[in-house]
Design brief:
two-stranded antiparallel ribbon, mainly alpha, globular
């Protein structure tokens, strides 16, 4: 039975692949694939739960498949099944069944019917990857897939300005959580001198006693992705922005399942930090601040979706407190109750709004003239303005890097850009032939190469000229990253470099071809505005999405494993090099997805296409 856990992944994945075979008109065939997937998923969730109960409720540890292995690194698919998985799988299966059934009628004759169910099936695959994961590598596969599905569903109404803008805002927060998890994997690898599974976190805790600084960093970067994914303070404001998609996707993503992944991460890693009082205090304070601020915001927001989003965030804040205090069965019950309640609220919200409008018309009562006190007025204004968290996060996180990217405007010059490209190749060649510069150590050369890569990525992130220049900047940055790793670790295997390049180079060439093809339509692919070319070149937009995620090492090519391997070659004390690398991969995704959104998404500039209202 343990070996059949893979069915949780295969069933929705095969349904996803089957649904790709039909176009949007074949709703019956797509619906059949979805019905089979949701029914089998429900039967498997209950069937495995019963088997687990009969078997004595012992955790199931199943190292399924090793994808890549060397003397110092193992990338394996590893499944783990225990009481946490039972609750999350049953809750997820029931809600997936209900939301998919509701969406069959809700999305009927919608222009994006196929896109919606493709994404929902892929999300189900990602969710099962996460809750069944037995190590960080397996969890990270689902983590990345879930982030992509969320991005696509927020930007579902891609002909409108705000859904596209808010999808980019949400994915920018997701990327913080992605990089934080990558740092956790890197530090745990150095702490244990090997890859570890979740059942071995107790051993890792004992090893951390001899490395308190490393343990502090690991736990800190565990709390950050949990707080980001579950919209905890100060990352709360992305959650209502993520509700731009269809109501049914908002229900299963941001009302029930996706928003609770941070809770799952803390539960799964609890054995590592359970004896660290500072970590428990940090989680309690984070949850308490979220519960207070989100409750205030939920009570004064003018839209029902925003109210539900902040109410869910506040409840998850209470779950964080319960996790830190050790009340894990209470957390699981709290999770299931909150998930079902928020899903129900979101699904019925259109009907409730319709009723309230009629009620207000026929039973309107004028409010009294009693003036509120200063304290209530202050809370009201803070709640309406969402405590200015959105503005503060923009000024602290993104604005400085955009400013830095604009300082490298000299890269607009074709001559300087060409010299930089040539320099990257020379740098890579020098690292391969063990070329030494007098007075410069390999570590300095590695830091310099990584800094140059970051400069190019920030340039692409803030560039507003032709998209091809930004696209070339990203591949040149990859060359500098490869040379930095090569200088830093002389013993790196050629196969590992090939793993990295085998996904990056084809993705770059595909993206370049598509940009050139799109530019022929009206000679304009500048990044200064949204072009909306998906109206006329939908297939090109889909292919460029694959190119963009391939360029950043998404788990669709071998580059995903290659990037994970390269991270292990950064030493445990090389914090500055690790910080530069993390920033590179953070903004690499944002820069590539920005190109996708600016060229293919948004309102089309030609008037013979329907134009959605800016804030519709």
């Amino acid at each position: 039975m343990a070996q059949l856990l893979i069915l949780f992944i295969l069933v929705p994945l095969l349904a996803f692949l089957a649904s790709m075979l039909w176009d949007n008109k074949h709703e019956r065939e797509i619906g059949l694939a979805v019905r089979l997937a949701k029914s089998l998923n429900l039967l498997m969730a209950f069937g495995f739960a019963v088997w687990w109960l009969i078997s004595g409720m012992q955790p199931v540890d199943d190292p399924l498949l090793t994808l890549y292995q060397t003397e110092h690194f193992v990338f394996a698919l590893h499944f783990y099944y225990d009481e946490i998985t039972v609750v999350f799988s049953i809750t997820g299966a029931i809600l997936f069944f209900l939301v998919a059934t509701f969406s069959k009628y809700y999305m009927h004759r919608d222009a994006g019917y196929k896109r919606f169910f493709n994404t929902i099936l892929l999300f189900s695959t990602a969710y099962n990857f996460i809750i069944l994961s037995g190590n960080f590598e397996t969890l990270f596969i689902g983590w990345e897939m879930k982030g992509l599905c969320s991005f696509l569903l927020i930007a579902f109404y891609r002909d409108r300005y705000l859904p596209v803008k808010n999808a980019f805002k949400a994915v920018s927060y997701y990327r913080i959580s992605d990089i934080s998890l990558m740092i956790v994997m890197w530090m745990l690898h150095h702490l244990m001198q090997r890859n570890i599974s979740f059942p071995e976190l107790g051993l890792a805790r004992e090893a951390a006693l001899t490395a308190p600084v490393m343990a502090f960093v690991i736990v800190l970067f565990l709390i950050v992705p949990a707080a980001v994914k579950s919209a905890q303070f100060p990352f709360s404001t992305w959650l209502p922005r993520a509700l731009e998609g269809p109501t049914s996707s908002s229900a299963i993503f941001y009302g029930s399942l996706s928003v609770h992944i941070g809770v799952f991460l803390l539960l799964r890693t609890y054995p590592f930090w359970e004896q660290m009082e500072w970590a428990k205090i940090t989680i309690v304070v984070t949850g308490a601040l979220t519960a207070i601020t989100s409750t205030v915001m939920a009570r004064v927001q003018p839209t029902v979706k925003t109210q539900i989003a902040y109410a869910s965030s506040a409840q998850i804040g209470l779950m964080f407190i319960e996790i830190a205090l050790g009340f894990h069965w209470l957390v699981l019950l709290h999770f299931a109750g909150n998930a079902f309640l928020r899903t129900y609220q979101l699904l019925v919200s259109p009907s409730v709004l319709n009723y309230l409008v009629h009620h207000q018309i026929f039973h309107y009562t004028a409010p009294g003239n009693r003036e509120p006190g200063k304290f209530k007025t202050t809370l009201y204004m803070l709640g309406v303005k969402e405590w200015n968290l959105d503005r503060i996060m923009y000024l602290c996180l993104w604005s400085p890097f955009k400013w830095a990217g604009r300082q490298f405007g000299f890269m607009r010059s074709g001559l300087i850009f060409g010299i930089t490209a040539l320099l990257s190749l020379v740098w890579l060649a020098g690292s391969l032939v063990v070329f030494r510069v007098p007075g410069l150590t390999p570590e300095i050369l590695a830091h310099t190469a990584m800094a140059l890569a970051l400069i190019l990525i920030l340039f692409a992130f803030s560039y507003r000229g032709p998209a091809t220049r930004a696209w070339f900047a990203l591949i040149i940055a990859h060359v500098f990253i490869l040379s930095a790793v090569q200088y830093n670790a002389r013993h790196i295997l050629p196969a590992e470099m090939i793993l990295y390049a085998s996904g990056i180079l084809p993705a770059f060439l595909l993206g370049l071809f598509l940009l050139k093809k799109t530019a022929k339509r009206d000679k304009d692919i500048s990044l200064s505005l949204f072009h909306g070319y998906v109206y006329e070149t939908e297939n090109s937009g889909l292919l460029f999405l694959f190119a963009a995620i391939g360029l950043l090492g998404f788990p669709v090519t071998a580059a995903f494993i290659g990037i994970d391997v390269l991270f292990t070659y950064i030493g445990s004390q090389q914090y500055s090099l690790m910080a530069l690398t993390a920033l590179c991969f953070l903004f690499l995704e944002l820069a590539s997805l920005r190109i996708l959104l600016r060229i293919y998404f948004g309102p089309h500039k030609k008037l013979y296409h329907p134009v959605a209202f800016r804030n519709s």
